Amino acid sequence: MKRSGENYQVDRIQELETKGRAVLHDALGLTGSEISINELPAGVSVPFMHAHKRNEEVYIVLKGSGRFHIDGDEFEVSEGDVIRIDPSAERCIIASADSSLRFICVQTEANSLVQFTAEDGVLLESKPSWFA
Length: 132
Ligand code: ZN
What we know:
Blueprint: E1 3-5, E2 8-10, H1 13-16, E3 21-23, H2 24-28, E4 34-40, E5 55-70, E6 73-78, E7 82-85, E8 91-95, E9 101-109
Antiparallel strand pairs: 1-2, 3-4, 4-9, 5-6, 5-7, 5-8, 5-9
The structure holds zinc ion.
The site of zinc ion has 3 residues, from loops.
């Protein structure tokens, strides 16, 4: 369901996905991160090695299995694995020969997080319709 309000945007991965990749920064107007949902078909690699200038990345493996290369280390990943990578690390990913690899990648500026969860959240008196 696509919709938006003054302070929010909703979109659908299926509608944003092009060639196995949905990028949320533009679609949702993200201001503090870039988030992509990706699916590499079985045996397919990201076709380049890359690093970043300022952003650390977190990869969240949702489904399937594959292999990461990070600064010369190579290791298997599968559903449930979460991987954080420093900006300067050299990285590449390949899906297993017999399995696609579906993952979310979150990019945020390294060392930019100053508060989160309870420190940043504010409890309010207002209530949604389902609070009786
Ligand atoms: Zn990257």
